[in-house]
Design brief:
Blueprint: H1 2-12, H2 22-43, H3 49-63, H4 70-83, H5 90-113, H6 124-163, H7 178-187, E1 224-225, E2 228-229, H8 248-261, E3 266-273, E4 277-284, H9 290-294, H10 297-304, E5 310-312, E6 321-326, H11 335-340, H12 342-346, E7 352-358, E8 363-367, E9 374-377, H13 384-396, E10 404-409, H14 433-456, H15 462-474, E11 486-491, H16 494-515, E12 521-527, H17 537-542, E13 545-548, H18 554-561, E14 574-578, E15 586-589, H19 595-609, H20 617-629, H21 645-655, H22 660-667, H23 671-683, E16 699-700, E17 712-713
Parallel strand pairs: 9-12, 9-13, 10-11, 11-12
Antiparallel strand pairs: 1-2, 3-4, 4-6, 5-6, 7-8, 7-15, 13-14, 14-15, 16-17
């Protein structure tokens, strides 16, 4: 048994009879061909002894005077053996050798038979067998052209074998070979593949960072919006430093050699340098399965001594494979540089998000309205919380409290503490699970109310509704209408909510994800534990935009983005981002914002707007919900249950005005509660239905006949 085991090991290491590396074998074979060429060359001068004379006479009898080209042919064969990286080169090499031998033998034979060359049997046996019948059939010139074509074809194959690229070649040697140009000229077609050349002889020049062009006055971040201002960019820090990729020439050579050691010939195409990784692009030879390349990520990591390598096969929109290698020195991506960019200003969205920079260093932006909800996952320390802070600042830099309201849920109690008392908050930061459940229920009711309002106004979404409000408010004499603000609900740890009240919370999340897009209510759900118990099938089916930071395992990666790869990320903001219209996840380095920057922006906003807006009903609803949640009797204020209903009814009848903004000012309540009071009055017959931009009609009871059920229009 021991002997059998040893023999198997010997076979696996390189063969039973010749256990040598492939490179050594090829070197020995090429040396034998060089020796054979030297022996044949010296035999022409009688300096090779008896063996040399015998070999010369033997080959002369077969190919005649063509024996004098054998030293050159054998020397070329030796070069092919040692230089080519082509796996199966023996057959084309033998074929080219035979073509050249037949061509020269036949040509010498027809020259001899036509008395141009006064030597008998100049072509040997092969020339006599092929040349004599050919000259009888086609005459001298046709036969001459045929044998010339044989020689030409054999030489082309030889040169092509010699011109196959070696791993040690530089940029000049990687250019199109001479024989390829000849084939193109003969066939009359362009080469099938055009490769982007690697500039190995010169260091890769990083493109000069373009300074953001000065933005026009009407899109500056500190522009006035109905008396409000947006935060200045001076509160944020700029990027400093550039990434260092190491020696690109050496890395490319190692990638190429490692793949060729596994019989995968490739052509290196180019290098994309990003803030976190450098992507080396390559094109595999025809017939190579991409799965063979992707399975070698660990071998490439070993060869390159890299921390973690991710292979993108293929790169979307290109016939190339990308090998992503971590940079020696990473470059920070800063939010200020992304907001200053003209591309950010051109988005034209109310809720723009600066996602970061991809593997090519190109800034990536998106719109929360388009997503319209986002799922975020990542282990501790992967940059998930910083990304959420960046997302909040991105939308705060484009919205005032009039156009955006935030609901922040932070079961950890420390992640969103910087945003305490921010005027954009619809209610204080929520730490309790019960409050979080109640706020989701309130959000569902608010969504239904908004859908009803937009249906009555005959508008499709919040954007068109706010346009209608803007047009109405510009016309003199019309009752002012309130702008419907966007509501963004951000949950930092979804797992805590799902574990405590999963059965109550999941239906609300699914309902909002399905219907809240048109109403301007958006969810951003984050978790550090992307298990199927937290991110359920229903939640995944309705939230197609997802971000995955570094996770612990491939299973977690598949849970969040339906593919592997997130387990190979580098942390510190390195993420994979996928949306419904992306074929594959995109690797992006998220921007970084420090605690100092967050405090600076929040303090500026508090100074500009004050710490809190007018009292909001949501806070009262949450408190009431907490008191009654344990009894199962919780419901939001509605109709006569609202202690302000009678006071609101009296105000509307006395002033003969019915609008949410009017009640908001008189009762000092939030817009949501004021709008709900108006809806209750409509149901009880106090006010008429909404009629687009026109004010509601107010009905009042005759004071003289307070018991009568008749209503009199004003």
């Amino acid at each position: 048994m021991v002997k059998k085991t040893k023999s198997k090991v010997a076979d696996s290491k390189g063969g039973k009879f010749f256990p040598l590396p492939k490179k050594i074998k090829k070197t020995i074979i090429s040396i034998l061909f060089f020796l054979f060429a030297i022996v044949m060359f010296f035999s022409f001068f009688g300096l090779s002894g008896m063996a040399g004379e015998y070999l010369k006479d033997f080959f002369t009898s077969f190919i005649g005077l063509a024996v004098y080209i054998m030293p050159i042919a054998l020397f070329l064969v030796g070069l092919v053996v040692i230089k080519t990286k082509y796996k199966r080169f023996a057959v084309p090499m033998v074929a080219s050798f035979l073509l050249i031998a037949i061509g020269f033998s036949g040509m010498l034979e027809i020259l001899s038979s036509s008395n141009i060359l006064e030597i008998d049997n100049a072509g040997g046996t092969i020339g006599d067998l092929i040349g004599s019948p050919l000259i009888k059939l086609f005459d001298f010139w046709i036969a001459l052209f045929v044998f010339t074509a044989f020689i030409f074809g054999g030489c082309l194959v030889f040169l092509q074998l010699l011109s196959l690229p070696s791993v040690l070649r530089t940029n000049d040697e990687l250019k199109e070979s001479f024989t390829s140009k000849i084939f193109r000229w003969v066939i009359g077609k362009n080469s099938e593949f055009k490769e982007k050349e690697l500039k190995f002889d010169e260091p890769v020049k990083k493109e000069e960072e373009k300074k953001p062009e000065p933005v026009k006055e009407d899109v500056l971040p500190d522009k006035n919006l109905n008396g409000f201002k947006l935060p200045p960019l001076d509160l944020l820090e700029s990027e400093s430093g550039a990434p260092s990729t190491g020696d690109i020439k050496v890395n490319s050579a190692i990638i190429k050699k490692t793949l060729e050691d596994f019989d995968i010939p490739v052509e290196m195409s180019g290098v994309n340098v990003g803030p976190t990784v450098a992507q080396y692009t390559l094109k595999p030879a025809e017939g190579i399965k991409l799965s063979k390349i992707t399975s070698l990520s660990n071998d490439l990591s070993l060869s390159l001594a890299a921390h973690s390598i991710r292979i993108e096969a293929p790169i979307p929109g290109k016939s190339l494979v990308g090998v992503e290698i971590p940079n020696k020195i990473r470059a920070e991506v800063r939010l200020r540089n992304m907001i200053e960019s003209p591309d950010y200003q051109k988005i034209g969205a109310r809720l723009p998000i600066a996602m970061g920079k991809d593997v090519s260093g190109i800034a990536v932006y998106t719109r929360l309205e388009k997503m319209p909800h986002l799922l975020v996952a990542g282990s501790t320390g992967s940059g998930k919380t910083i990304f959420l802070n960046t997302l909040i600042l991105s939308i705060l830099y484009n919205n005032t409290p009039e156009t955006l309201r935030l609901i922040l849920v932070d079961p950890k109690r420390v992640e969103f503490s910087h945003f305490k008392d921010t005027p954009h908050l619809l209610c204080p930061v929520i730490f309790d699970v019960d409050r979080a459940s109640n706020v989701l229920k309130w959000s569902v009711l608010e969504m239904e109310r908004r859908l009803k309002v937009m249906s009555e106004a005959k508008t499709r979404d919040i954007g068109s509704y706010n346009d209608l409000v803007s047009k109405n408010n510009k016309k003199k004499g019309n009752e002012p209408m309130e702008v419907m603000p966007y509501i963004v609900i951000i949950v930092d740890e979804l797992a805590d909510l799902m574990v405590s009240k999963g059965k109550e919370i999941e239906p609300k999340i699914v309902r909002l994800a399905q219907m809240a897009r048109a109403t301007g209510i958006h969810l951003v759900l984050a978790t550090q534990r992307p298990s199927v118990e937290v991110i359920t099938g229903l939640i995944k089916a309705n939230i197609v935009s997802r971000v995955s930071f570094q996770v612990a395992s491939q299973v977690d990666s598949r849970t969040i983005i339906d593919t592997a790869g997130a387990e190979k990320l580098l942390g510190a903001g390195d993420m994979l981002y996928v949306t419904g219209d992306m074929p594959k996840p995109k690797r992006v380095q998220a921007p970084y914002v420090s605690e100092k920057e967050i405090k600076g922006v929040v303090n500026w906003i508090k100074t500009e707007y004050g710490e809190t807006m007018e009292g909001d009903s949501l806070c009262e609803d949450l408190e009431k919900g907490l008191e009654e949640a344990t009894e199962g009797t919780f419901d939001f204020y509605d109709g006569e249950n609202d202690p302000l209903y009678e006071e609101a009814r009296t105000i509307v009848i006395e002033n003969k005005k019915a609008s949410a903004s009017f009640l908001q000012r008189r009762l000092r309540v939030g817009y949501a509660r004021a709008a709900r009071l108006i809806d209750m009055m409509e149901e009880r017959g106090v006010v008429g239905p909404a009629d687009g931009a026109k004010p509601r009609e107010v009905y009042t009871r005759n004071i003289e006949d307070s018991g009568s059920d008749e209503w009199k229009g004003v």
